[in-house]
Amino acid sequence: MLKTMEEKTYKFMRENTFMEVHCIDLIENMQDPNVSKLAKAFRVTRGAISKVTKRLIEIRAIERYQKPGNKKEIYFRLTDIGREIYWEHEKMHEARIERDSGFFSPLNEAEKDQMIRMLHKIYGQIAEELKKMGLDNYV
After folding, report:
1. SS3 helix, strand, coil % of the chain, rounded to 5?
2. Would you say 8 and 2 are in contact if contact means Cβ atoms under 8 Å apart?
3. Tens place of pLDDT for every residue, the chain, 139 residues?
4. pTM of the entire structure?
5. Contacts of 130 (CB under 8 A, 6+ apart)
6. Pick the CATH number of 5-106 from 1.10.10.60, 1.20.140.10, 3.40.190.10, 1.10.10.10
7. For the chain, which residues make up each domain, given as ranges?
């Protein structure tokens, strides 16, 4: 995937993978995030999430914790470093929305509807191809 010049200015994108940043996002927004919940949300194995969370713990973006009375289950929460990455990611998305609104604002409703229909068709075609390849979890 190509990165725009704008994206290269975001420190979190130079230092973290796509999966790490989006794992941070889920941990911030999910109630009681643990390996199983994160794996289900990402549609990946628990092993894959364990690898990502291990790295995030190493860079001190997240920390493990347990609830009183439940020493079996391990949960995750953001540290100050993780919250900083989370907010930089949010700001990037806000900037993209603002940037892209200039493209969409001149379109009338019929043009927007036509674009949405076209994107749904493209998505449907890609989804069918992924299913044929046995990659349903990417749909």
Report:
1. 70, 10, 20
2. no
3. 445 545 556 677 778 888 999 999 999 999 999 999 999 999 899 999 999 999 999 999 999 999 998 889 999 999 999 999 999 999 988 988 888 888 888 999 999 999 999 999 999 999 898 888 877 766 6
4. 0.73
5. 136, 138, 139
6. 1.10.10.10
7. 5-106, 108-139
